[in-house]
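Notes taken during the Thursday session

The instructor put the following on the board and asked us to keep it in front of us for the whole hour. The protein is Ionic transporter y4hA. We were told not to look anything up and to reason only from what is written here. First, the residues (363 in total):
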Amino acid sequence: MRRWSDWVPVLAVVALVLSWGRTLPGAAVAVVAVFLAGAVLAAVHHAEVVAHRVGEPFGSLVLAVAVTVIEVALIVTLMVDGGPKGATLARDTVFAAVMITCNGIVGLSLLAAALRRRLAVFNAEGSGAALATVATLATLSLVLPTFTTSRPGPEFSTGQLAFAAVSSLALYALFVAMQTVRHREHFLPVAGEGQQAADRAEAEEGHAGVPSRSAAAASLALLVVSLVAVVGDAKAVSPTIESAVASAGLPQAVVGIVIALLVLLPEALAAVRAARRGRVQQSLNLALGSAMASIGLTIPVIAVATVWLDGPLVLGLTATHMVLLALTVVTGALTVVPGRATLLQGGVHLSILAAFVFLAISP
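Then, after some discussion, the predicted structure tokens were revealed:
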């Protein structure tokens, strides 16, 4: 274990163990934050090794599912510890993840690719199907609770929550089957000049050789360790984040945004690096796959967790958030239909993310 990417995750886990369940002073929070950043960079490195070994779209799926599974564990843990404030935590974190992935990661990826090669080229069939699935999952799980009448407020009844959980899981499983088996070709990078340039760049950087099975297995294990460290260290610094948010007089929803940003950093960095190499489809697979997994895996787990969790579970979005979600879906559809994008589309998506963050801070 001579490379930094091998030993940094281990040290980050050690920092997690030493800080778990304790109130940290400012200096300790800074140290944990440093290890958190190191674990993020290590996760990106190991995710790229695994993705290079298994190929697309499996590589993107591995990182998206791994991050989401641990994100779900973080949400449940914070809901248990959060008391009444945990009622909206799942909604705030999941919606923040959707906005960050569908606007932030997509926008940055399109910008990175367009700046490098003038046009970002990708497969419209696969990206369009992924966006449609995200829009359906978000509407069924986050929009409908605002309009149902079985319970007062933006909440599902027990039966409605069970239906949303089962349908979310089934829809996500169907998409994964299409992505990896039946229509895998729709989620592969588009062949052509951009792909050839990407292959040349990859060869120049020394990654052209496919990693061995043992190297990929080691990277997969270290990827899981890195992601555990990212989420655990994020939880360790979350009390500081919450106190800072409260001291600044900001809404509680800002906490969910910060947590989502921390957890999604590995995917964001991996997506931008892939886009710079001309692999825009891989970037979109990561972004939209993560948004889909955030809903399709989180809602079923939260539904099961309500068996022992006390208090209400608020899933319904506010009117402002529904407008932003509708704008994201419409803009995303117009972006993916042509199968190519310019700097303008990237800037439009990033402006929607900026509006989401600003309105969260100043509702």
